[in-house]
## 1
Amino acid sequence: QVQLVESGGGLVQAGDSLRLSCAASGRTFSSYAMGWFRQAPGKEREFVATISRSGGITYYRESVKGRFTISRDNAKNTVYLQMNSLKPEDTAVYYCAADSGALGARRGNDYEYWGQGTQVTVSS
C-alpha cells in the first residue's frame, strides 16, 4: 500500500509559477514510477507528466512541454511538478499517482495508487 499526499496548489495569475509536491509513504517509493494527472471541471482526467523509478526518464503531454518539469527525490519520498508560465487552461485539480512499472505510464488506469488532489487555479 502507498499513501500519496499532494500539496502546493493555489490561486495564481497567468504567467506565474507553482511547485506541486507529492509525499509518499508506505512501500518503497523508489519501486514506483510516478505520474501527475489533472482534471478540470466538466472534463475527463488527463495525463500531465510521468517520471521513471530512477528519475532518468520523463514524458509530458504536449501542451505542458517546456513549461512543466517533473522530478523526484527518492531520499525524501517525494515527487514534484514545477509549473512555470501558467495559463488559465492549466486550471484543474492535480493528482499524483504511483505505478509499479519501471518507466511510468500515460494512462491513468495503469496507476495503482492516487492522492486526493490539489487545486490549481490560474486567473487571466
## 2
Amino acid sequence: QVQLVESGGGLVQAGGSLRLSCAASGRTFSSYFVGWFRQAPGKEREFVMGITRNGDRLYYADSVKGRFTISRDNAKSTVYLQMDSLKPEDTAVYYCAAATSPTTTVSGINYWGQGTQVTVSS
C-alpha cells in the first residue's frame, strides 16, 4: 500500500511557473515508477509526465515537452513537477500516481493521490 499526497497547486498567470510536490508514505517509495496525470472539466484523465524509480528514464506527453520537468528525491520520498511557461489549457486537476512498472495509461496505475487544482489565467 502506498499513500500519495499532492501539494503546490493554485492560480497562476499564463507564462508563469508552478511546482507541484507529491509526498509518499507506506511502501518503499524508491520501488515505484511515479507519474503525473491531469484531468480538465469534461475531459478524460491524461498522462503528463513520469519518472522511473531510479530516475534514469523520463516519460512525457508532447503537449508539455520543453515546458515541464519531473524529478524525484527518494531520500525525501517526494516527486516534483516543475511547470514553466504555463498556458490556460494546462488548467486541470493534477494527480500524482504510482505503479510497479512504467506506464503512461490510467489503467496501468496502482495508486492515486487526491489531486491538486492548477488554474492558469490568461
## 3
Amino acid sequence: QVQLVESGGGSVQAGGSLRLSCAASGDTQSYYMGWFRQAPGKERDWVAFINNIGTTGYADSVKGRFTISKDNAENILYLQMNSLKPEDTAMYYCAAGDRRFAIWSTTESFRYWGQGTQVIVSS
C-alpha cells in the first residue's frame, strides 16, 4: 500500500551538505518513518526517525548534524545532512512502519523500504 522512492544522493566534499528526499506514493500520515544507511561490508544502521505526531530521534553518530522532517502536504520525507564526514558514506534508505509497538532503531519495525540512494563523502 505504501511505496517509497529516495533521491538526492551524490558525491560531496567533507563538511558539505546534502538533502535526501523520500517520496511516498501511499498515505503515510499515520505511519512512523525513518532513515537507515548501510556502508559496504557493514550492517544496515538506523539514522533517524519521525513519528505521526512529529517526534524525532537520531543516532548518536549524526545527532546535531542531520535533521529529519516530513512535508505532509506533499507526502515527502527529508533528511537534511550537514557537516558531512567521510564515515557518512553509505547507501541511504527510507523506511516506513505501522506496528503498534515499534523500536524505531531496528529494521524489523519497518514494513516498507525504498530502493536506496548513494551518498559519497570525500576528504
## 4
Amino acid sequence: QVQLAESGGGSVQAGGSLRLSCAASEVTFRYYCMGWFRQAPGKEREGVATLDTFALTTYANSVKGRFTISRDNMKNTLFLQMNSLKPEDTAMYYCAAAAGAYCPTQSNFQYWGQGTQVTVSP
C-alpha cells in the first residue's frame, strides 16, 4: 500500500511561484508513474502533469511552459514547480501514483494523496 503525502501549497498572488512536494512510502518508487492532478470547486478533477519511469513528461495545455514535474527517486519524492501562477490555477492539488513503466489514464492511478490547497489571488 503506497502512501502519498503532499505539501507546499499555500496562498500567493498572481505571477508568484510555489513548489509542491509529494513524499511516497514505496521503496520501488522509481518504477511508478507519478502524476499531479487538481480539482477546483464545482469542477471535475483534471490532470496537470505526469512523469513516467523513463522521465517522459506530459502537461496540460493550461500549465505548459509554467509548471515542471520532476522526481527524486533517492528521496522517494515527486515535485511540481509552479511558476507564473494564475487565479485559474487555484485548486486542491493531488499527487498520484500508478505501478508500471508508463502512465495510465487518470482513473487507473492506484494511489492518491490527500491533497494540498493552492490559492492564487488576482
